[in-house]
Design goal:
The protein has no helices and 10 strands. It is an all-beta fold. The strands form 2 sheets. Strands 2-10-9-4-5-6 form a 6-stranded mixed β-sheet, with no helix packed on it. Strands 1-3-8-7 form a 4-stranded antiparallel β-sheet, with no helix packed on it.
Length: 113
C-alpha cells in the first residue's frame, strides 16, 4: 500500500523558514521522481519542485527558485522541502506526490505577519 505522509506545515512570518517532510512507503523511493505541489486558497494546483532521488536532478518553479530547496534521504524514504524567505504568496496546502501519481494528504503552510 502506497503511503505519502507530509508534515512540517505551520504558520510562519514573511521572511521566515519552514521545512516540510514527506515520509513514503509502499514503493521504491530510491531512484524515483518525487514532486512537491501546492494549492493556494481559491487557486489551482501549482508544481513547486521535483527531484530524481537517484541522480539528484532537481527543478523549481520560477516563483520559488532560489528560496526553496528540495532534497531526499533515501535511507529514510523521506522527501524534504526547505523553504526560506517565505512570502505571503507561499500560503498554500503543500502536497508531495510520486509518479503514480499518488499524493499525500497535504500540510498547510500559512505565511502571515
Amino acid at each position: 500500500q502506497v503511503q505519502l505522509v507530509e508534515s512540517g506545515g505551520a504558520l510562519a512570518q514573511p521572511g521566515g523558514s519552514l521545512r516540510l517532510s514527506c515520509v513514503v512507503s509502499g514503493f521504491i523511493f530510491s531512484g524515483s521522481w518525487m514532486y512537491w505541489v501546492r494549492q493556494a486558497p481559491g487557486k489551482g494546483l501549482e508544481g513547486v519542485s521535483f527531484i530524481n532521488t537517484g541522480n539528484g536532478a532537481t527543478s523549481y518553479a520560477d516563483s520559488v527558485q532560489g528560496r526553496f530547496t528540495i532534497s531526499a534521504d533515501n535511507a529514510k524514504n523521506t522527501l524534504y522541502l526547505q523553504m526560506n524567505d517565505l512570502k505571503v504568496d507561499d500560503t498554500a496546502v503543500y502536497y508531495c506526490a510520486n509518479n503514480g501519481p499518488m499524493w499525500g494528504q497535504g500540510t498547510q503552510v500559512t505565511v502571515s505577519s
